[in-house]
Amino acid sequence: FWAHLYAFLMLYSLLGCEWLSGQFPLTQNVTVTEGGTANMTCRVEYNDQTSLQWSNPAQQTLFFGDKKALRDNRIELVRASWAELTISISDISLSDEGQYTCSLFTMPVKTTKAFLTVLGVPERPEITGFTKPAMEGDEITLICTTSGSKPAAHIRWFRNDKEVTGTKEVNATGKSFTVKSTLQLQVDQSDDGVAYTCSVEHVSLSSNPYQVTEVLEVHYAPHVEISHSAIIPQEGQYFKLECVSKGNPLPEPVLWSKDGGELPDVERMIVEGRELTITSLNKTDNGTYRCEASNYLGTSGAEYVLFVYAKDLPEPATDPNAPGQQDPDHALIGGVVAVVVFITLCLIIALGRYLARHKGTYLTHEAKGSEDAPDADTAIINAEGNHAAEEKKEYFHQEAERNVFHLTPENIGYANNYVFREEHVKCINVNDM
């Protein structure tokens, strides 16, 4: 307690009773945008008819009471009384920024400070570093620059409506700043006609940033596609092909051809700009149509295979020019092959069933000794120790109602010569075996 009381008494002795009774100047800091007007106010709660004075950062007196001391047409008196002194400074510049002093001429003189902050408005930005046109694949640099801002401005880049990131550089120029942002990109045909916008934001601009836009121009070689008016062209129809070409510069004109040569019927095949119109289709129009487009960077072409269908035939379900669609002749060949394969399989199945119904086994003595015999006669003679041929018996096993010869593999080569000789083959009834 005693320490606080001692501090209070010391402060009282230093400042005097006038301060305690409100005889002390009061001010506020002021912030104004360059080019605007600043009002500087100094007040006292109690004044025993003592004059107030404003002076600038260079300690030059501006006003003493209601008397103007400095010849500057921008400085004017707003209000002067024993309790208040307010002045205005118009057309503020960055050089006006600094610490201003309000003085109350008591004994001793009492002073207070007010800082005037001036916001430097950035200049409108400019985009440089790009020369039109660019070629596809080129690497280009866009530079957005603004100067005169205080504090330093903020720069943002946009590709159409999407923000992209650039590289920022800030340099001080006196009391203001120069800000530069660089955007590097490799362009292709998708960048042709794209708008790159540089946006400068600053506290002095409130919510209305400065913006500048550069629309890119990119040159690239043509790309060609063909569109057609009918999916299923039929005889007698009106038919149109359009050569859709992209490129910069725009490729003009386009060239039409058929099967590698000129269009054969110029009376029915009419070319207008990018369109080829056939007024009435017929079978002679079948073929491959090609369009080509060129600019100074190159040439591009596209082809369309036209197949005209008869009017009275059912239309195919798909476009013959669709990817993976077979040619009509190939489809016909495939169908024929399928029918042939089906018939062949049927014949094989029928033959197998026929052979299965006529199965039997031959038992013959001619097989004996046949391995060493040079021919069928010798085989028969050698069988059973060279017995007479008529004593050789061939055992035949037959099915119930049919007498069919079935030979064993050993005798099949020889028996074919003698199977019908009555003197060598004796048909034995199954019932007798």
The backbone outline, from C-alpha atoms, is rod-shaped
- Which oligomerization state do the chains in this entry correspond to? single chain
How many helices? The count is 5
Average pLDDT reading: 79
Model regions low in confidence, pLDDT < 50 over at least 5 residues: 1-6, 8-21, 323-328, 360-370, 383-433
Q: Could you tell me the CATH topology label of the domain at 25-119.
A: Immunoglobulin-like
Task: Write the CATH architecture name of the domain at 25-119.
Answer: Sandwich
Report the radius of gyration as a whole number of Å: 56 Å
Number of strands: 27
The CATH superfamily of the domain at 25-119 bears the name Immunoglobulins
Secondary structural class:
alpha+beta
What is the CATH level 1 assignment of the domain at 25-119?
Answer: Mainly Beta
Biggest sheet descriptor:
6 strands, mixed
Strand order of the largest sheet: 1-9-8-3-4-5
- State the end-to-end CA separation: 149 Å
Strand content: 35-45%
Pfam families: C2-set_2 (PF08205), Ig_3 (PF13927), V-set (PF07686)
InterPro entries: CD80_C2-set (IPR013162), Ig-like_dom (IPR007110), Ig-like_dom_sf (IPR036179), Ig-like_fold (IPR013783), Ig/MHC_CS (IPR003006), Ig_sub (IPR003599), Ig_sub2 (IPR003598), Ig_V-set (IPR013106)
Protein name: Cell adhesion molecule 2b
Family: Belongs to the nectin family.
